[in-house]
Automatic annotation (TrEMBL):
Similarity comment: family membership: Belongs to the class-II aminoacyl-tRNA synthetase family.
Keyword tags: Aminoacyl-tRNA synthetase, ATP-binding, Cytoplasm, Ligase, Nucleotide-binding, Protein biosynthesis
Signal sequence extent: none
UniProt cross-references to PROSITE patterns, sorted A to Z: AA_TRNA_LIGASE_II (PS50862)
Stated name of the protein: Asparagine--tRNA ligase
Record GO terms (molecular function): asparagine-tRNA ligase activity; ATP binding; catalytic activity, acting on a protein; nucleic acid binding; transferase activity
GO cellular component: cytoplasm
PANTHER family tied to this protein: ASPARAGINE--TRNA LIGASE, MITOCHONDRIAL-RELATED (PTHR22594:SF34), ASPARTYL/LYSYL-TRNA SYNTHETASE (PTHR22594)
Residue intervals of the Aminoacyl-transfer RNA synthetases class-II family profile domain: 133-451
InterPro entries: Aa-tRNA-synt_II, aa-tRNA-synth_II, aa-tRNA-synth_II/BPL/LPL, Asn-tRNA-ligase, Asp/Asn-tRNA-synth_IIb, NA-bd_OB-fold, NA-bd_OB_tRNA
Species annotation: Fusicatenibacter faecihominis
Predominant location category: cytoplasm
Amino acid sequence: LTTVREIFRDREKYLNKEIQVGGWVRSNRDSKAFGFLVLHDGTFFETLQIVYHDTMANFQELTKINVGAAVIVKGTLVPTPEAKQPFEIQAEEISIEGASTPDYPLQKKRHSLEYMRTITHLRPRTNTFQAVFRVRSLIAYAIHKFFQERDFVYVHTPLITGSDCEGAGEMFQVTTLDLNNPPKNPDGSIDYSKDFFGKETNLTVSGQLNGETFAQAFRNIYTFGPTFRAENSNTTRHAAEFWMIEPEIAFADLKDDMILAESMLKYVINYVLEHAPEEMNFFNSFVDKGLIERLKHVANSDFGHVTYTEAIEILEKHNDKFEYKVSWGVDLQTEHERYLTEEVFKKPVFVTDYPKEIKAFYMKLNDDEKTVAAMDCLVPGIGEIIGGSQREDSYEKLLARMNELGLKEEDYGFYLDLRKYGSTRHAGFGLGFERCVMYLTGMGNIRDVLPFPRTVGTCEL
Ligand code: 4AD
Ligand code: MG
């Protein structure tokens, strides 16, 4: 079968030739002597019009083809200079590969995104989700390409782990114990030594700690895999299962980390604009007007920089606008992040040097001993898209912080070892992959950029 992508990309090769295509019917209408099928074959954003005539033996059958059916068409590709589409196929033969019933849930009208979430198995067939998931695939490829071109080693970090990287306690437990009748310790608590791994385990919230062990061997590494968080946040930007990209760089500090993050985002923007023009035009017209201009501007200008302390000073002046009032020490909420990036900077901005109390144990303590060398990258429309930091590389300071927070030395012995045997200055960050897809497509809900979203209360298919 010739693909619609080949036809559109290499049209001279196929015009006025006999070809065969296969695809799914988007619409079917007929008048007495002829009919039109609109076909989408999944390889390209555009559809192809098929003209069939009553000279064909199965004409009556063809007029009854329902939307959603799969067909194979043999015919000649002819130019149609006066029509919207540059060409169509004059069919000689059409065979029905798989019929469809009249109750097909995707009829030729605009369906709401909410409705589409109830049919996650069929929504990839629509224009919106064709565009979303092809762009998602391209972004993943572009991210790999960016890091591989710079000789970063791709590390596969485990999904089942015994540690809690972020220390937020938002983990899904993994157990084979019968929790209705679990083995008990003398004090009544569950005896996890009888569990599969001989201890309590969970799905990973981040591959960073494992990633750091490889950075202390390869220098520059990245992870790219699923992460899990049992956050009870029912928002448009939180999922229970999401993908994260976590580079880690040795002999590097927070500045190097931000330079890497900024060049990665710009690279990915340029890649997608170049390689998915049809999809990006669709988003630009139907999802987020002005998206392309904005992304081009972001790719060609510097990101903003502000310290947490400066950001608080700015935000405090606008406390009347916020549901949650800010003051030094509070964590920034989405409303504050969006205000900073949308109203104050009007572009992506790095917020740095957060109070140590609101950040994870592994971040490097600054000289003021109150803040840590952290950075969050905020973007308009979403807020935080990247969270990163320079890591505490002093054995003594890390141990002291772990003790303060009550982290057990036996669980993090490997992590302390990295500070004992040839410790280096090092830094890294985590890019939330779905938030990146949202940013590049203009889609407003994380549920619509995940093929099969898992959020509070929802785990279908
Ligand atoms: O800021 P976070 O929690 O950072 C880490 O996990 C670090 N270990 C990263 C590192 O330094 N290697 O998460 C990183 C990013 C966030 O900025 C956000 O984009 C995304 O992951 N993220 C989520 N995306 C979707 N749903 C959720 N529940 C998310 N939680 C975090
Ligand atoms: Mg964060």
